[in-house]
Amino acid sequence: MQIQFYAFLSLSIISLFLFTSCSRVGFQDSNDITSASNSGNGNTGVKPPPSSGLADQVNSLDMRTYVDSGTFEGLLVADLDKTGKGQLILRIPLGITPIFSIGAGSHQKYKDISFSLEGSIANGFGLVVKIPLKYILRLSDVEAAAPGRLPNGDALPAVPSGELPMLNIVINPDKKEKIYLYLSKEFVGILFESKFDPGIGGFEYPLTDKNGLRTLGYFHLIPPKNKAPTAFMLLLQLPAKASALLDDYFMD
Prior knowledge:
By secondary structure, this protein is mainly beta. It has one domain (6-251). It is built from four helices and 15 strands. Strands 6-7-8-4-3-2-13-14-15-12-11-10-9 form a 13-stranded antiparallel β-sheet. A hairpin with a 7-residue loop joins strand 10 and strand 11 (178-183). The two termini are 31 Å apart.
Protein backbone atom coordinates (compact mmCIF):
# COMPACT_ATOMS: atom_id res chain seq x y z
CA MET A 1 0.00 0.00 0.00
CA GLN A 2 1.33 3.41 -0.91
CA ILE A 3 0.98 6.03 1.81
CA GLN A 4 0.89 9.81 1.48
CA PHE A 5 3.86 11.16 3.43
CA TYR A 6 4.78 14.79 2.76
CA ALA A 7 7.00 16.90 4.96
CA PHE A 8 7.46 20.60 4.18
CA LEU A 9 10.48 21.98 6.02
CA SER A 10 10.81 25.64 6.92
CA LEU A 11 13.98 27.63 6.32
CA SER A 12 14.57 27.65 10.06
CA ILE A 13 15.78 24.06 9.79
CA ILE A 14 18.93 25.28 8.06
CA SER A 15 20.18 26.71 11.33
CA LEU A 16 19.78 23.30 12.95
CA PHE A 17 22.38 21.82 10.61
CA LEU A 18 25.04 24.54 10.71
CA PHE A 19 27.37 22.67 13.02
CA THR A 20 30.77 21.17 12.37
CA SER A 21 30.51 17.50 11.50
CA CYS A 22 32.82 15.02 13.18
CA SER A 23 35.47 12.94 11.50
CA ARG A 24 34.93 9.22 11.21
CA VAL A 25 37.00 7.23 13.69
CA GLY A 26 35.55 3.86 12.70
CA PHE A 27 33.06 1.55 14.27
CA GLN A 28 34.06 0.13 17.61
CA ASP A 29 32.89 -3.26 18.79
CA SER A 30 33.02 -4.49 22.36
CA ASN A 31 33.54 -7.91 23.83
CA ASP A 32 31.13 -7.03 26.64
CA ILE A 33 27.75 -6.62 24.99
CA THR A 34 25.71 -7.10 28.17
CA SER A 35 25.53 -3.70 29.79
CA ALA A 36 25.06 -3.41 33.51
CA SER A 37 21.88 -1.49 32.74
CA ASN A 38 18.64 -3.44 32.32
CA SER A 39 16.65 -0.55 30.91
CA GLY A 40 17.34 -1.03 27.20
CA ASN A 41 14.11 -2.82 26.44
CA GLY A 42 12.68 -0.72 23.66
CA ASN A 43 9.60 1.45 24.13
CA THR A 44 7.66 -1.09 26.14
CA GLY A 45 9.89 -1.48 29.19
CA VAL A 46 8.89 -5.15 29.29
CA LYS A 47 11.56 -7.82 29.62
CA PRO A 48 11.46 -11.26 28.03
CA PRO A 49 10.22 -14.04 30.34
CA PRO A 50 13.05 -15.04 32.71
CA SER A 51 13.49 -18.66 31.73
CA SER A 52 17.23 -19.22 31.43
CA GLY A 53 20.68 -17.71 31.50
CA LEU A 54 20.13 -16.77 27.87
CA ALA A 55 17.09 -14.70 28.83
CA ASP A 56 19.12 -12.98 31.52
CA GLN A 57 21.74 -12.01 28.96
CA VAL A 58 19.07 -10.63 26.65
CA ASN A 59 17.50 -8.72 29.55
CA SER A 60 20.80 -7.01 30.28
CA LEU A 61 21.64 -6.27 26.64
CA ASP A 62 21.50 -2.52 26.12
CA MET A 63 21.44 -1.48 22.45
CA ARG A 64 20.31 2.11 22.96
CA THR A 65 22.23 4.38 20.62
CA TYR A 66 22.52 8.17 20.71
CA VAL A 67 23.73 11.01 18.50
CA ASP A 68 27.11 12.03 19.92
CA SER A 69 27.40 15.62 18.71
CA GLY A 70 25.81 18.45 16.75
CA THR A 71 22.26 19.77 17.00
CA PHE A 72 20.82 16.37 17.91
CA GLU A 73 23.42 15.49 20.52
CA GLY A 74 22.04 13.09 23.13
CA LEU A 75 19.01 12.11 21.04
CA LEU A 76 18.07 8.43 21.16
CA VAL A 77 18.05 7.03 17.61
CA ALA A 78 18.09 3.25 18.09
CA ASP A 79 16.65 0.83 20.63
CA LEU A 80 15.67 -2.80 20.91
CA ASP A 81 12.12 -3.93 21.63
CA LYS A 82 12.59 -7.29 23.36
CA THR A 83 8.94 -8.30 23.48
CA GLY A 84 7.46 -10.93 21.18
CA LYS A 85 9.87 -11.84 18.40
CA GLY A 86 11.87 -8.68 18.93
CA GLN A 87 12.34 -5.66 16.70
CA LEU A 88 14.92 -2.94 16.15
CA ILE A 89 13.50 0.58 16.42
CA LEU A 90 15.35 3.28 14.49
CA ARG A 91 14.61 7.02 14.48
CA ILE A 92 15.98 9.52 11.98
CA PRO A 93 15.87 12.97 13.60
CA LEU A 94 14.42 15.55 11.21
CA GLY A 95 14.04 18.59 13.43
CA ILE A 96 11.15 19.83 11.31
CA THR A 97 8.38 22.33 11.91
CA PRO A 98 4.89 20.80 12.11
CA ILE A 99 3.81 21.79 8.58
CA PHE A 100 3.18 18.35 7.11
CA SER A 101 0.64 15.63 6.61
CA ILE A 102 1.60 12.86 9.00
CA GLY A 103 2.02 9.55 7.26
CA ALA A 104 2.33 6.03 8.55
CA GLY A 105 2.52 2.74 6.75
CA SER A 106 4.49 -0.38 6.09
CA HIS A 107 6.61 -2.09 3.48
CA GLN A 108 4.61 -3.05 0.41
CA LYS A 109 5.38 -6.75 0.87
CA TYR A 110 6.76 -7.17 4.39
CA LYS A 111 3.87 -5.62 6.30
CA ASP A 112 5.48 -5.97 9.72
CA ILE A 113 8.23 -3.51 8.70
CA SER A 114 6.53 -0.23 9.61
CA PHE A 115 7.23 3.50 9.56
CA SER A 116 5.67 6.60 11.07
CA LEU A 117 6.45 10.25 11.64
CA GLU A 118 6.50 10.88 15.37
CA GLY A 119 7.34 13.69 17.73
CA SER A 120 6.17 17.07 19.00
CA ILE A 121 6.84 20.76 18.59
CA ALA A 122 8.72 20.76 21.89
CA ASN A 123 10.95 17.79 21.18
CA GLY A 124 11.20 17.80 17.40
CA PHE A 125 10.10 15.18 14.94
CA GLY A 126 11.61 12.01 13.61
CA LEU A 127 10.96 9.24 11.14
CA VAL A 128 10.59 6.01 13.12
CA VAL A 129 11.13 2.66 11.40
CA LYS A 130 10.50 -0.64 13.19
CA ILE A 131 12.21 -3.71 11.75
CA PRO A 132 11.51 -7.21 13.13
CA LEU A 133 14.75 -8.96 14.02
CA LYS A 134 14.01 -11.86 11.67
CA TYR A 135 14.77 -9.63 8.68
CA ILE A 136 18.15 -8.70 10.16
CA LEU A 137 19.25 -11.98 11.70
CA ARG A 138 17.83 -14.26 8.99
CA LEU A 139 18.23 -12.27 5.82
CA SER A 140 17.14 -15.28 3.77
CA ASP A 141 13.58 -14.41 4.86
CA VAL A 142 13.82 -11.28 2.71
CA GLU A 143 13.39 -12.34 -0.90
CA ALA A 144 15.28 -10.66 -3.73
CA ALA A 145 17.19 -8.30 -1.47
CA ALA A 146 19.85 -7.41 -4.02
CA PRO A 147 22.95 -5.54 -2.81
CA GLY A 148 22.51 -1.78 -3.00
CA ARG A 149 24.59 1.37 -2.63
CA LEU A 150 23.42 4.89 -1.86
CA PRO A 151 20.66 6.11 -4.21
CA ASN A 152 23.17 8.52 -5.79
CA GLY A 153 25.44 5.59 -6.71
CA ASP A 154 28.10 6.21 -4.07
CA ALA A 155 29.33 3.46 -1.78
CA LEU A 156 27.71 3.13 1.63
CA PRO A 157 29.90 5.00 4.14
CA ALA A 158 31.99 2.90 6.53
CA VAL A 159 30.83 -0.38 4.96
CA PRO A 160 33.88 -2.27 3.60
CA SER A 161 32.05 -3.64 0.55
CA GLY A 162 30.28 -0.33 -0.05
CA GLU A 163 26.93 -2.09 -0.44
CA LEU A 164 24.39 -4.12 1.53
CA PRO A 165 21.18 -6.03 0.75
CA MET A 166 18.54 -3.35 0.23
CA LEU A 167 14.76 -2.97 0.35
CA ASN A 168 12.79 0.20 -0.22
CA ILE A 169 9.44 1.56 0.90
CA VAL A 170 7.55 3.89 -1.41
CA ILE A 171 6.05 6.64 0.72
CA ASN A 172 4.13 8.71 -1.79
CA PRO A 173 2.38 7.96 -5.05
CA ASP A 174 4.84 9.68 -7.39
CA LYS A 175 7.65 7.51 -5.98
CA LYS A 176 9.98 10.47 -5.55
CA GLU A 177 10.36 9.86 -1.84
CA LYS A 178 11.38 6.52 -0.37
CA ILE A 179 12.78 4.89 2.70
CA TYR A 180 15.66 2.57 1.90
CA LEU A 181 16.47 -0.28 4.28
CA TYR A 182 19.96 -1.79 4.32
CA LEU A 183 19.94 -5.09 6.19
CA SER A 184 22.59 -7.56 7.28
CA LYS A 185 23.70 -9.27 10.48
CA GLU A 186 26.57 -6.78 10.78
CA PHE A 187 25.10 -3.51 9.51
CA VAL A 188 21.63 -2.00 9.57
CA GLY A 189 20.81 1.27 7.87
CA ILE A 190 17.78 3.39 7.00
CA LEU A 191 17.85 6.23 4.51
CA PHE A 192 15.04 8.75 3.97
CA GLU A 193 14.92 10.76 0.76
CA SER A 194 13.67 14.32 1.16
CA LYS A 195 12.73 17.04 -1.31
CA PHE A 196 14.20 19.59 1.10
CA ASP A 197 17.79 20.67 0.48
CA PRO A 198 19.26 22.87 3.25
CA GLY A 199 22.03 23.87 0.85
CA ILE A 200 24.87 23.23 3.29
CA GLY A 201 26.42 20.13 1.77
CA GLY A 202 26.44 17.14 4.08
CA PHE A 203 27.35 16.22 7.62
CA GLU A 204 28.28 13.15 9.63
CA TYR A 205 27.71 12.74 13.37
CA PRO A 206 28.88 9.68 15.31
CA LEU A 207 26.35 7.46 17.07
CA THR A 208 27.49 6.06 20.41
CA ASP A 209 26.35 4.08 23.42
CA LYS A 210 24.86 5.93 26.39
CA ASN A 211 28.30 6.61 27.87
CA GLY A 212 29.72 7.94 24.62
CA LEU A 213 32.53 5.38 24.78
CA ARG A 214 31.83 3.24 21.71
CA THR A 215 31.10 4.45 18.20
CA LEU A 216 28.25 2.29 16.93
CA GLY A 217 27.37 4.10 13.73
CA TYR A 218 26.81 7.44 12.03
CA PHE A 219 24.01 9.88 11.23
CA HIS A 220 24.47 11.44 7.79
CA LEU A 221 23.01 14.24 5.75
CA ILE A 222 23.76 13.32 2.14
CA PRO A 223 23.49 16.20 -0.38
CA PRO A 224 21.77 15.86 -3.79
CA LYS A 225 23.84 14.10 -6.45
CA ASN A 226 23.22 12.32 -9.77
CA LYS A 227 19.51 13.22 -9.69
CA ALA A 228 19.16 11.67 -6.23
CA PRO A 229 17.60 14.09 -3.70
CA THR A 230 18.85 15.03 -0.26
CA ALA A 231 18.87 12.07 2.11
CA PHE A 232 19.03 11.54 5.85
CA MET A 233 20.68 8.27 6.87
CA LEU A 234 21.32 6.24 10.01
CA LEU A 235 23.87 3.45 9.69
CA LEU A 236 24.61 1.14 12.62
CA GLN A 237 27.05 -1.69 13.08
CA LEU A 238 25.68 -4.50 15.23
CA PRO A 239 28.19 -6.14 17.60
CA ALA A 240 28.77 -9.71 16.45
CA LYS A 241 28.11 -11.16 19.90
CA ALA A 242 24.87 -9.21 20.20
CA SER A 243 23.64 -10.56 16.87
CA ALA A 244 24.52 -14.12 17.91
CA LEU A 245 22.79 -13.71 21.27
CA LEU A 246 19.63 -12.29 19.70
CA ASP A 247 19.60 -15.02 17.09
CA ASP A 248 19.84 -17.71 19.77
CA TYR A 249 17.05 -16.16 21.83
CA PHE A 250 14.53 -14.92 19.28
CA MET A 251 15.06 -17.19 16.28
CA ASP A 252 15.24 -20.60 17.95
